[in-house]
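user:
I keep going back and forth on a fold encoding question. Separate attempts, laid side by side, tell us more than any discussion would. Would you put together a sequence-and-structure record for a protein of your own picking? Write it directly below this note and I will take it from there.

assistant:
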Amino acid sequence: MHFYITGDTHRNFDRIEDFCYGYETTTEDVMIILGDAGINYWLDMSDKELKGQLSGMDITFFCVHGNHEARPWEAADYEEKIWNEGIVYVEEQYPNILFAKDGEIYNFHGKKVMPIGGAYSVDKYYRIRNGLP
């Protein structure tokens, strides 16, 4: 099991897909996305299509929510389960897409981490003014 870290995919997972292919990852490997994955962005069918695409990749996604996406508990039928000693949000049909729960402590090969997602968005008022999520 290997852990990889990236951030701000903003719904574009081409480079992740290339990475997985190049390094021959498996679902035992974990790609940590540090915010703005964009998986729960529009809260419509396009999110489900993206999740379908990601569920076919040979890697497990561990996502920390960013400031440009809905929180998992607002987005879909997520369940809570224990993963690496902490609680994650997961949908049954997409078992390799996990979302961190703020304040939980996870164990990554003996290293303890506590993700707290979200941030102030410099484009907050632009998004509100233009009806964007």
Remarks:
- The first helix runs from residue 14 to 23.
- The longest strand covers residues 94-100.
- Residues 100 and 128 are 26 Å apart (CA to CA).
